[in-house]
Amino acid sequence: MFMQKIQAKFYSLKTRLINKFIRLSPWCYDIYYRYFTSWQQGSIKGIYLHPSWKKNANHVLIFTQRYWLIHTAVESAFAKELQTQGWNVTVVGCDQAIRTCDNMMYGQTLETKPLTHQCSYCSYLLKKLCQRVGVNYISIREYLERNPVQSDSLPYRDYEKIVWCSWVRLLRSQHPQEQEEFALRHSLVESCQTIDRFLTHYLEHNKVDQVIMLNGKFFAEQLLREHCHEKDIPYISYEKGTFKETLVFAKNKAAIPYPTLEKWQQRKDIPLTQEQKQRLYGYLEQRKVVGNAGIVPLYSTMTEDQKQLSLKYGIDLTKDIVVLFTNVIWDSSVVLEDTIFSNIFEWITTVINFYIKNQDTQLIIRIHPAEIKISPQQQTRDKVQDFIQSKFPTLPSNIIVISPQDDASPYTLMNLAKIGLVYTSTTGLEMALKEKPVIVCSNTHYANTEFVYTPLNTKEFLIFLSQNLQLRNQQLIYAERYAYMLYFEYMIPYSNWINQKNANYKFKTAISEMNLLRQAEL
Question: Which carries the bigger pLDDT value, residue 73 or residue 389?
Fold first, then answer.
C-alpha cells in the first residue's frame, strides 16, 4: 500500500510537470503531437459507410471529447476518409467547456477552476488533428458562447442517472461515502447539462444524418444517444475489443456490452470449417501465454501446475469444484448491467452463503487481477477481497479466495472446475469452450445464449447451483461458433493501419484498404 501511494504521487507529479511545461511552451504541443500521432495525407484508404447509410445523407457528426490517443486517432481517420468520399463531416470537441469528463480520475476533478491539467492536451490535439486532416471542427465552448442556451429551457432529463456510469468509473467505486464524492457527481451533472445545452441547440439548427461516437455509456455519449433516439438520427458507437488491437461497432446501441445478438442469430446455425476451428483453438492457446490475454497484460508469470496450485491453496481435488471469476466493478462492461442481483457484491454474497451450507463442494473465488495490476490511478477502491473479509471474517475450508496478487492461472482453475460462475467476465465463454457448464448472472454479451445457463431470478440461480449441470455437445458447438464470430468476425483489427507501440500511435503510410465500417457491416 505504501509503495502504491509513492507510485501514485510520483506519477501525478511527473504528469503535472510535463503538462505545465507544455502549456508554457506552445511549440511543444507540435512536438508532442508529432511524436504520438504522425499523420500523412491520404495514407489511410477505404473507410466508408454501408450504402444503405449513405443514401439521402450527407452530414456525419463525430462526437469526441476526451484525450484517449487511440480513440482520437480512430475518429480522425474516420473523419478524413468519410470526407474524401463526399460526406460532410463535423467533429465536435468539448474545448474546456465542462468541468469534469471521463478522461479524469477522482482527485483531479474537483478543482475550483473548470480547467484540469489534461484539458490543454485534449482541446489542442483535437483542433490540430482536424486542421491537419482538413475536416470541420466545432468547439462546444465557443458554440455556447455564440449561442447561449438557458438551462431552464431544456426538457427534463434525469442527469444523475445519465452520469451514473461515468461517476462510478471516475470514483472506481459503487459506494460513495465522502462529501467530495457527491461533489463529483454534482460536477458531472453540471457538465452533462452543458453538453445537453449544446446538443439541444445544435441538433435543432443543423441537419445531422449520422452520428459516430465512442462506447455509448459514458455520460456525454449516453446523452447524445438520447437525442439521437428522440430525433430519429441513426448512429454508430464503437469501442476497443477484448481481442488485442481490435474495434467493435454497434448500430443504434451502446457498443458495451457488445450487442452481438443480431449477428449471433444470423451466425449460430452455420457450422465452422475445420480451418476455422483450428484458428479458434490456436488463438485460445495463445491467450494462455503470459501477456497475450487481452488489452492489458495482467500476469508476469502464471502458476499452471494443478498439483502445485492444490497444495498452495488447499484445494480438495476429491470434491466437485465450482470456480467463480469476479470483475473490476467500475468497468463499463459491468456498470448498469445488473439483472437478478443489485450488484456484483450481492451475487458473491449469495454464492458464499450457498456453499457455506453445502460444504461437500469446493468453491474457489478468483479475484480479478486488474483490481491491483494496473496503474495506481485506476485501481478499484471497492476491492472484492476486502468485501469478503469484512462480510465473512471466517470462511469454511471448502471456500477458497485467490487474491488478485496471486499468479494462479485462470486456465488451470477452469480445468479443475466442474461449474463456472461469472458476472460479465469473458472467462465464462472460455469455460464453455472447455466443455464446462457456466452460469451467467448479468447482462453480458453472451448471456441468454444457447451454451450458458442464464437464470431469470435468484430462485432459479440457487436451483442451478444445486443441480448437476452438464454442457451438452450441441452447447459446445454453439460456444465454438459464438467464440469464432466474436473474435474473428465481430471484432475488427486496426493493427494493419495504425502502428501501436507502448503509448504511441502512428498511422502507417502504405495501406491499400481499411474498410473498418464495411467489415463491421455498418
Answer: 389
